[in-house]
Design brief:
It is a single chain. This protein is an alpha/beta fold and 347 residues long. The protein is built from 14 helices and ten strands. The protein starts with a helix and ends in a 9-residue tail after the last helix. The structure holds pyridoxal-5'-phosphate and iron/sulfur cluster. Iron/sulfur cluster binds next to loops.
Length: 347
Protein backbone atom coordinates (compact mmCIF):
# COMPACT_ATOMS: atom_id res chain seq x y z
CA UNK A 1 0.00 0.00 0.00
CA UNK A 2 2.74 2.42 0.97
CA UNK A 3 4.69 1.72 -2.19
CA UNK A 4 1.52 2.31 -4.20
CA UNK A 5 1.09 5.76 -2.66
CA UNK A 6 4.73 6.57 -3.27
CA UNK A 7 4.38 5.48 -6.86
CA UNK A 8 1.43 7.73 -7.32
CA UNK A 9 3.20 10.79 -5.97
CA UNK A 10 6.15 9.98 -8.23
CA UNK A 11 4.06 9.39 -11.33
CA UNK A 12 5.32 11.35 -14.32
CA UNK A 13 3.68 14.69 -15.18
CA UNK A 14 1.93 13.21 -18.20
CA UNK A 15 0.15 10.60 -16.08
CA UNK A 16 -1.15 13.30 -13.75
CA UNK A 17 -2.39 15.27 -16.76
CA UNK A 18 -3.96 12.11 -18.16
CA UNK A 19 -5.79 11.55 -14.88
CA UNK A 20 -7.00 15.16 -14.60
CA UNK A 21 -8.91 15.15 -17.91
CA UNK A 22 -12.44 16.54 -18.02
CA UNK A 23 -14.85 13.62 -17.71
CA UNK A 24 -17.99 15.64 -17.01
CA UNK A 25 -19.79 17.57 -19.70
CA UNK A 26 -21.05 20.27 -17.31
CA UNK A 27 -17.53 21.01 -16.04
CA UNK A 28 -16.15 21.11 -19.55
CA UNK A 29 -18.86 23.49 -20.75
CA UNK A 30 -18.36 25.76 -17.75
CA UNK A 31 -14.61 25.88 -18.46
CA UNK A 32 -15.35 26.73 -22.11
CA UNK A 33 -17.92 29.39 -21.09
CA UNK A 34 -20.71 27.62 -22.95
CA UNK A 35 -24.29 26.66 -22.07
CA UNK A 36 -26.24 23.72 -23.49
CA UNK A 37 -28.60 26.34 -24.98
CA UNK A 38 -25.71 27.65 -27.15
CA UNK A 39 -25.98 24.53 -29.36
CA UNK A 40 -28.34 23.72 -32.21
CA UNK A 41 -27.93 19.98 -31.49
CA UNK A 42 -27.90 19.70 -27.72
CA UNK A 43 -24.99 17.92 -26.04
CA UNK A 44 -25.91 14.84 -24.04
CA UNK A 45 -24.15 14.01 -20.75
CA UNK A 46 -25.44 10.42 -20.74
CA UNK A 47 -23.75 8.89 -23.78
CA UNK A 48 -22.45 5.34 -23.34
CA UNK A 49 -19.06 6.43 -24.72
CA UNK A 50 -18.21 8.89 -21.94
CA UNK A 51 -16.72 12.36 -22.28
CA UNK A 52 -12.98 12.52 -21.84
CA UNK A 53 -10.89 15.60 -22.70
CA UNK A 54 -7.42 16.33 -21.31
CA UNK A 55 -6.96 19.90 -20.08
CA UNK A 56 -4.09 20.48 -22.53
CA UNK A 57 -6.51 19.85 -25.38
CA UNK A 58 -9.42 21.78 -23.82
CA UNK A 59 -7.10 24.81 -23.53
CA UNK A 60 -6.85 24.94 -27.35
CA UNK A 61 -10.63 25.18 -27.79
CA UNK A 62 -11.84 28.73 -28.33
CA UNK A 63 -13.87 29.87 -25.32
CA UNK A 64 -17.51 30.69 -26.01
CA UNK A 65 -17.50 29.19 -29.52
CA UNK A 66 -20.04 26.33 -29.85
CA UNK A 67 -18.75 25.60 -33.38
CA UNK A 68 -15.07 25.30 -32.53
CA UNK A 69 -13.55 22.50 -34.67
CA UNK A 70 -11.77 20.93 -31.70
CA UNK A 71 -14.88 21.06 -29.54
CA UNK A 72 -16.97 19.32 -32.20
CA UNK A 73 -14.59 16.35 -32.09
CA UNK A 74 -15.20 15.66 -28.40
CA UNK A 75 -18.70 16.94 -27.72
CA UNK A 76 -21.25 14.15 -27.08
CA UNK A 77 -24.47 14.89 -28.95
CA UNK A 78 -27.98 13.46 -28.80
CA UNK A 79 -27.53 12.91 -32.56
CA UNK A 80 -25.26 9.98 -31.68
CA UNK A 81 -28.37 8.00 -30.69
CA UNK A 82 -29.92 8.25 -34.15
CA UNK A 83 -29.67 4.77 -35.64
CA UNK A 84 -28.57 4.56 -39.25
CA UNK A 85 -28.88 1.27 -41.09
CA UNK A 86 -25.66 1.68 -43.11
CA UNK A 87 -23.67 2.26 -39.91
CA UNK A 88 -22.57 -0.66 -37.71
CA UNK A 89 -20.70 -1.40 -34.48
CA UNK A 90 -17.79 -2.99 -36.43
CA UNK A 91 -17.57 -1.20 -39.79
CA UNK A 92 -13.93 -2.11 -40.42
CA UNK A 93 -14.34 -5.86 -39.91
CA UNK A 94 -11.91 -5.90 -36.98
CA UNK A 95 -13.58 -8.86 -35.29
CA UNK A 96 -13.06 -11.03 -38.38
CA UNK A 97 -9.41 -9.97 -38.69
CA UNK A 98 -8.49 -11.07 -35.14
CA UNK A 99 -5.83 -13.78 -35.46
CA UNK A 100 -5.41 -14.21 -31.72
CA UNK A 101 -6.93 -12.01 -29.01
CA UNK A 102 -5.15 -8.63 -29.18
CA UNK A 103 -3.70 -9.09 -32.71
CA UNK A 104 -5.46 -8.09 -35.96
CA UNK A 105 -4.11 -8.98 -39.36
CA UNK A 106 -5.87 -7.53 -42.38
CA UNK A 107 -2.94 -6.72 -44.65
CA UNK A 108 -0.17 -9.03 -45.73
CA UNK A 109 3.03 -7.57 -44.32
CA UNK A 110 1.74 -5.87 -41.20
CA UNK A 111 -0.34 -6.74 -38.16
CA UNK A 112 -1.97 -4.51 -35.62
CA UNK A 113 -1.53 -5.02 -31.90
CA UNK A 114 -4.36 -3.72 -29.73
CA UNK A 115 -1.90 -2.72 -27.04
CA UNK A 116 -4.47 -1.21 -24.68
CA UNK A 117 -8.11 -0.13 -24.68
CA UNK A 118 -7.38 3.17 -22.96
CA UNK A 119 -7.33 6.59 -24.62
CA UNK A 120 -6.44 10.00 -23.18
CA UNK A 121 -9.22 11.61 -25.20
CA UNK A 122 -12.52 10.27 -26.45
CA UNK A 123 -13.15 11.27 -30.07
CA UNK A 124 -16.83 11.04 -30.95
CA UNK A 125 -16.23 9.68 -34.46
CA UNK A 126 -13.91 6.92 -33.22
CA UNK A 127 -14.26 3.67 -35.14
CA UNK A 128 -13.23 1.75 -32.05
CA UNK A 129 -15.78 3.37 -29.75
CA UNK A 130 -17.73 0.12 -29.58
CA UNK A 131 -14.69 -2.11 -29.57
CA UNK A 132 -14.86 -4.89 -26.96
CA UNK A 133 -12.03 -3.43 -24.92
CA UNK A 134 -12.26 -6.09 -22.24
CA UNK A 135 -10.42 -8.13 -24.85
CA UNK A 136 -7.84 -5.40 -25.23
CA UNK A 137 -6.15 -6.44 -22.03
CA UNK A 138 -5.45 -9.57 -24.08
CA UNK A 139 -2.27 -7.78 -25.14
CA UNK A 140 -1.12 -8.47 -21.58
CA UNK A 141 -2.77 -11.80 -20.76
CA UNK A 142 -2.21 -13.24 -24.25
CA UNK A 143 1.24 -11.74 -24.83
CA UNK A 144 3.18 -15.04 -25.15
CA UNK A 145 0.69 -16.28 -27.77
CA UNK A 146 0.81 -12.95 -29.64
CA UNK A 147 4.60 -12.96 -29.75
CA UNK A 148 4.56 -16.59 -30.87
CA UNK A 149 2.09 -15.77 -33.69
CA UNK A 150 4.21 -12.84 -34.86
CA UNK A 151 7.39 -14.91 -34.79
CA UNK A 152 5.76 -17.73 -36.77
CA UNK A 153 4.12 -15.58 -39.49
CA UNK A 154 6.61 -15.42 -42.35
CA UNK A 155 4.78 -12.57 -44.11
CA UNK A 156 5.02 -10.03 -41.31
CA UNK A 157 7.54 -7.19 -41.55
CA UNK A 158 5.86 -4.55 -39.46
CA UNK A 159 3.90 -4.44 -36.21
CA UNK A 160 1.55 -1.56 -35.56
CA UNK A 161 0.88 -0.66 -31.96
CA UNK A 162 -2.63 0.65 -31.76
CA UNK A 163 -5.56 0.49 -29.40
CA UNK A 164 -6.96 2.55 -27.82
CA UNK A 165 -3.81 4.60 -27.59
CA UNK A 166 -0.60 2.60 -27.09
CA UNK A 167 1.13 5.59 -25.49
CA UNK A 168 -1.40 5.27 -22.64
CA UNK A 169 0.91 2.48 -21.46
CA UNK A 170 3.76 3.28 -19.10
CA UNK A 171 7.25 3.69 -20.54
CA UNK A 172 8.22 0.44 -18.80
CA UNK A 173 5.43 -1.58 -20.39
CA UNK A 174 6.03 -0.03 -23.82
CA UNK A 175 9.70 -0.73 -23.54
CA UNK A 176 9.03 -4.42 -22.86
CA UNK A 177 6.71 -4.70 -25.87
CA UNK A 178 8.99 -2.84 -28.26
CA UNK A 179 12.15 -4.64 -27.15
CA UNK A 180 10.54 -8.04 -27.65
CA UNK A 181 9.08 -7.11 -31.04
CA UNK A 182 12.38 -5.62 -32.19
CA UNK A 183 14.08 -8.88 -31.24
CA UNK A 184 12.09 -10.76 -33.92
CA UNK A 185 14.58 -10.72 -36.85
CA UNK A 186 11.95 -10.49 -39.60
CA UNK A 187 10.28 -7.40 -38.09
CA UNK A 188 11.83 -4.37 -39.83
CA UNK A 189 9.57 -1.62 -38.56
CA UNK A 190 7.52 -0.87 -35.50
CA UNK A 191 4.76 1.62 -35.95
CA UNK A 192 2.89 3.49 -33.23
CA UNK A 193 -0.52 4.97 -33.95
CA UNK A 194 -1.22 7.58 -31.30
CA UNK A 195 -2.99 10.79 -30.43
CA UNK A 196 -1.20 11.24 -27.09
CA UNK A 197 1.76 13.46 -28.09
CA UNK A 198 -0.86 15.85 -29.50
CA UNK A 199 -3.39 15.83 -26.70
CA UNK A 200 -0.78 15.65 -23.90
CA UNK A 201 2.64 16.70 -25.29
CA UNK A 202 4.30 15.93 -21.92
CA UNK A 203 3.82 12.26 -22.88
CA UNK A 204 7.01 12.61 -24.91
CA UNK A 205 9.26 11.90 -21.93
CA UNK A 206 13.07 11.60 -22.02
CA UNK A 207 12.62 7.90 -21.18
CA UNK A 208 10.34 7.40 -24.18
CA UNK A 209 12.72 9.24 -26.52
CA UNK A 210 15.64 7.21 -25.24
CA UNK A 211 13.80 3.91 -25.66
CA UNK A 212 12.64 4.71 -29.21
CA UNK A 213 16.06 5.89 -30.31
CA UNK A 214 17.63 2.61 -29.09
CA UNK A 215 14.99 0.24 -30.48
CA UNK A 216 17.31 -0.93 -33.25
CA UNK A 217 14.49 -1.00 -35.82
CA UNK A 218 12.83 1.81 -37.74
CA UNK A 219 10.20 3.47 -35.58
CA UNK A 220 7.33 5.14 -37.39
CA UNK A 221 4.98 7.25 -35.31
CA UNK A 222 1.65 8.07 -36.89
CA UNK A 223 -0.03 10.97 -35.12
CA UNK A 224 -3.71 11.56 -35.42
CA UNK A 225 -4.34 15.28 -35.92
CA UNK A 226 -7.45 16.58 -37.63
CA UNK A 227 -7.14 20.34 -37.37
CA UNK A 228 -4.34 22.94 -37.33
CA UNK A 229 -5.59 24.33 -34.00
CA UNK A 230 -4.64 21.05 -32.32
CA UNK A 231 -0.99 21.99 -32.86
CA UNK A 232 0.41 24.47 -30.34
CA UNK A 233 4.03 25.27 -29.45
CA UNK A 234 4.21 22.37 -26.96
CA UNK A 235 3.11 19.95 -29.68
CA UNK A 236 5.71 21.33 -32.11
CA UNK A 237 8.42 20.91 -29.47
CA UNK A 238 7.38 17.33 -28.61
CA UNK A 239 7.31 16.34 -32.28
CA UNK A 240 10.71 17.87 -32.97
CA UNK A 241 12.13 15.87 -30.06
CA UNK A 242 10.71 12.68 -31.52
CA UNK A 243 12.21 13.57 -34.87
CA UNK A 244 15.62 14.19 -33.28
CA UNK A 245 15.35 10.73 -31.71
CA UNK A 246 15.22 9.32 -35.25
CA UNK A 247 11.48 8.63 -35.32
CA UNK A 248 9.73 8.90 -38.70
CA UNK A 249 6.66 11.10 -38.28
CA UNK A 250 3.46 10.74 -40.31
CA UNK A 251 -0.08 11.97 -39.71
CA UNK A 252 -3.47 10.52 -40.41
CA UNK A 253 -6.65 12.58 -40.21
CA UNK A 254 -10.29 11.74 -40.48
CA UNK A 255 -12.33 13.96 -42.79
CA UNK A 256 -15.09 15.35 -40.55
CA UNK A 257 -18.03 17.54 -41.43
CA UNK A 258 -17.74 21.04 -39.92
CA UNK A 259 -14.33 20.19 -38.47
CA UNK A 260 -11.93 20.03 -41.42
CA UNK A 261 -14.07 19.70 -44.58
CA UNK A 262 -12.67 22.74 -46.38
CA UNK A 263 -9.63 23.27 -48.59
CA UNK A 264 -8.49 26.05 -46.27
CA UNK A 265 -8.65 23.86 -43.14
CA UNK A 266 -6.85 20.97 -44.85
CA UNK A 267 -4.05 23.13 -46.25
CA UNK A 268 -3.56 24.87 -42.90
CA UNK A 269 -3.34 21.46 -41.27
CA UNK A 270 -0.66 20.28 -43.72
CA UNK A 271 1.33 23.48 -43.16
CA UNK A 272 1.24 23.09 -39.38
CA UNK A 273 2.15 19.41 -39.65
CA UNK A 274 5.23 20.34 -41.65
CA UNK A 275 6.18 22.84 -38.90
CA UNK A 276 6.34 19.78 -36.64
CA UNK A 277 8.33 17.67 -39.12
CA UNK A 278 5.27 15.47 -39.77
CA UNK A 279 4.29 14.35 -43.30
CA UNK A 280 0.58 14.09 -44.13
CA UNK A 281 -0.07 10.40 -44.80
CA UNK A 282 -3.76 9.51 -44.89
CA UNK A 283 -6.98 11.47 -44.96
CA UNK A 284 -9.56 8.86 -43.98
CA UNK A 285 -13.13 8.81 -45.05
CA UNK A 286 -15.13 8.18 -41.89
CA UNK A 287 -15.61 4.56 -40.86
CA UNK A 288 -19.35 4.03 -40.66
CA UNK A 289 -19.51 3.45 -36.93
CA UNK A 290 -22.93 3.65 -35.32
CA UNK A 291 -23.37 7.11 -33.75
CA UNK A 292 -20.98 9.02 -36.03
CA UNK A 293 -23.16 9.58 -39.12
CA UNK A 294 -23.38 13.34 -38.52
CA UNK A 295 -19.65 13.63 -39.29
CA UNK A 296 -19.79 12.03 -42.73
CA UNK A 297 -18.59 13.92 -45.82
CA UNK A 298 -19.73 12.55 -49.20
CA UNK A 299 -17.05 10.84 -51.35
CA UNK A 300 -17.67 13.32 -54.19
CA UNK A 301 -17.04 16.29 -51.86
CA UNK A 302 -13.98 14.61 -50.35
CA UNK A 303 -12.48 13.88 -53.76
CA UNK A 304 -12.93 17.50 -54.83
CA UNK A 305 -11.30 18.80 -51.65
CA UNK A 306 -8.19 16.71 -52.22
CA UNK A 307 -8.08 17.53 -55.93
CA UNK A 308 -8.14 21.22 -55.05
CA UNK A 309 -5.36 20.73 -52.49
CA UNK A 310 -3.31 19.09 -55.24
CA UNK A 311 -3.88 22.14 -57.46
CA UNK A 312 -2.61 24.49 -54.79
CA UNK A 313 0.10 22.60 -52.87
CA UNK A 314 3.30 20.67 -53.23
CA UNK A 315 2.60 16.96 -53.62
CA UNK A 316 4.04 16.07 -50.22
CA UNK A 317 1.45 18.30 -48.52
CA UNK A 318 -1.48 16.32 -49.93
CA UNK A 319 -2.56 13.25 -47.93
CA UNK A 320 -3.93 10.13 -49.61
CA UNK A 321 -7.71 10.08 -49.38
CA UNK A 322 -8.68 6.53 -48.42
CA UNK A 323 -11.47 4.43 -47.06
CA UNK A 324 -11.07 1.23 -45.12
CA UNK A 325 -13.27 -1.54 -46.51
CA UNK A 326 -13.76 -4.82 -44.65
CA UNK A 327 -12.32 -7.77 -46.51
CA UNK A 328 -10.02 -5.77 -48.83
CA UNK A 329 -6.27 -6.18 -48.60
CA UNK A 330 -5.35 -2.49 -48.60
CA UNK A 331 -7.02 0.76 -47.70
CA UNK A 332 -8.80 1.93 -50.83
CA UNK A 333 -8.17 5.27 -52.57
CA UNK A 334 -11.56 7.03 -52.68
CA UNK A 335 -10.91 8.14 -56.28
CA UNK A 336 -11.00 4.49 -57.34
CA UNK A 337 -14.28 3.92 -55.56
CA UNK A 338 -15.78 6.74 -57.55
CA UNK A 339 -14.84 5.37 -60.95
CA UNK A 340 -15.16 1.82 -62.26
CA UNK A 341 -16.06 -0.78 -59.59
CA UNK A 342 -13.52 -3.06 -61.29
CA UNK A 343 -10.79 -0.69 -60.10
CA UNK A 344 -11.16 -1.80 -56.51
CA UNK A 345 -8.20 -3.99 -55.59
CA UNK A 346 -9.13 -7.66 -55.25
CA UNK A 347 -9.70 -9.06 -51.76
C1 LIG B 1 -4.79 0.75 -41.39
C2 LIG B 1 -4.36 -0.56 -40.92
C3 LIG B 1 -3.06 -1.01 -41.14
C4 LIG B 1 -2.00 -0.16 -41.80
O1 LIG B 1 -2.25 0.10 -43.14
P1 LIG B 1 -1.22 1.01 -43.94
O2 LIG B 1 -1.88 1.17 -45.25
O3 LIG B 1 0.07 0.31 -43.95
O4 LIG B 1 -1.11 2.30 -43.17
C5 LIG B 1 -2.72 -2.28 -40.74
N1 LIG B 1 -3.61 -3.08 -40.11
C6 LIG B 1 -4.88 -2.68 -39.89
C7 LIG B 1 -5.80 -3.63 -39.22
C8 LIG B 1 -5.30 -1.40 -40.26
O5 LIG B 1 -6.55 -1.02 -40.02
S1 LIG C 1 -8.62 5.36 -30.58
FE1 LIG C 1 -7.92 7.33 -31.38
S2 LIG C 1 -9.74 8.22 -32.39
FE2 LIG C 1 -10.44 6.61 -31.01
S3 LIG C 1 -10.96 7.67 -29.09
FE3 LIG C 1 -8.86 6.88 -28.93
S4 LIG C 1 -7.58 8.63 -29.56
FE4 LIG C 1 -9.67 9.05 -30.29
Amino acid sequence: MISEIQNRSQSPAWQRRYASAFTRLDELLRYLRLNPSDFVDPPDPHQAFPVRVPRDYAARIEKGNPRDPLLLQILPLRLENVLNSTYSPDPTGDQVAMVTPGLLKKYRSRALLVATGACAIHCRYCFRREYPYQEASAAVSNWPEILQTITADTELEEIILSGGDPLSLSDERLSTIITQLAAVPRIKRIRIHTRLPVVIPARVTPALLDMLSRAGKNIVLVTHINHAHEIDTDVVKAMRELQRAGVILLNQSVLLKQVNDSVKALIELSEHLLDCGISPYYLHQLDRIQGAAHFEVADAVATNLVREMRNRCAGYMVPRLVREMPGLKTKVPVELLRSEPGNIPPA
